[in-house]
Amino acid sequence: MTPLHTDDEITQAYAQGRLLHKDVLEHGAYYRGFSRNADVARWHALAQAFFYPRTKLGETQLDSIRHPADDRRFDAFQVFEKVEPAADEVIADAQFEGFYEVNKTRRFRPKA
Q: What is the pLDDT of residue 112?
């Protein structure tokens, strides 16, 4: 699938079932989609964000990205389908939950 750029394109894709709404996402599941830095990401329900491994300057770390329902102005993860991750896309459960715990007060505060 190709990335969607305008609000009209995104709205139409939801109506046609080409993008998944947040309310159908399962905690800990992996999804294929589109963003600037990720094709596959893992949904964290408490964080209301996707986590994915990102390699930058030769070092791989977890990063997070929002769903388009929460962030259409910047880079968001446009979710196409639930998938089984490839070996290099797997995030260990301890790392997945640990990333949330370490960052929950800075990155994942509820919106006012």
A: 46
